Amino acid sequence: MSGAQNNAEVGEVFVRPVDGTAAEAIAAIAEELAMFDDWMDRYEYIIEMGRSLPSFPAAWQNDAHRVPGCQSQVWLEASEDGDKLLFAGASDAAIVSGLVALLLRVYSGRSRAEIEDTDPKFLHELGLVKALSTNRGNGVEAMAQAIRARARA
Length: 153
Prior knowledge:
Blueprint: H1 7-10, H2 22-34, H3 39-51, E1 74-81, E2 84-91, H4 94-107, E3 110-111, H5 112-117, H6 122-125, H7 128-131, H8 134-152
Helix pairs in contact: 2-4, 3-4, 4-8
């Protein structure tokens, strides 16, 4: 990720928090996923989450923004908003876009400390890593680590 960007230059591409804290976001996602009886329905819900992501600028779809370790192409960008970090993200795969949206719901708009303190173990606790292919599971964990690394930068 190349660093802070001016929102006025790029339009509103960064995900704003809808839940008060990362923990509240995780709890809300858990409740939402629990509404579905099987993983096929959960996958559809996650794909829909990805469709709600703000448009990611084509100029950022490059190696400087690419998250290594993902089977699909995934791009992330961060911007500082006071003491909070906002993230924008995208993928070339529908299910992965949904996973990006899920992670940004948890991490975007949080302080560096909250991001660092929010262990991505929730991905296992929600059953996401187990329900995904090995490569996709590794990829979603790589995305979470990239977000947390940006918070430490």
